[in-house]
Write the structure tokens for this entry.
Amino acid sequence: MRKISLFIASSLDGYIARESGEIDWLFTDQDYGYSEFIAEVDTLIMGHKTYQQVLSFDEYPYSEQEVFVLSHTLQGKAENNAIFINDDWVNFITNLRQSRGGVIWLVGGGQTIHYFLQHNLIDEIILSIHPIILGSGIPLIIKDSSIATKLDLRNVKSYDSGLVQVTYNVKS
């Protein structure tokens, strides 16, 4: 079965973006393990808000991967070959995990991560904690006692920039 990996960055106080969705505070001075991670990824899943943000980048970064966007409103296939999935997400994800391929990257955002946690669909979390306190924003984890999830620490890596990257296996 294919692994679903949440590879994401947050502020020290647990936000993945400013309230406006801006990610201008993210470090871009080094790779932070991204190249090694993306080399194993052939499929991405993201929510429609994250997809809209990706479209605002200077260049679309995922032309080499298969991209699925979970959305109740967007339908069909986009110009960049992203495919919109409108309903029965658990069944779609279950079938995708059983198909041949590499790592499936859960890109985000907060509501999509919450959905995956609710349905026990994440196998691994790689979290890059940036040394910044935003005070408010879009939370990495939406507060909800129904998503209580146990994790096994697999690795911790610190960088000279102050960024700390922790890797967890998600317990079933």
User: Anything to note?
Assistant: The first strand starts at residue 4 and ends at 11.
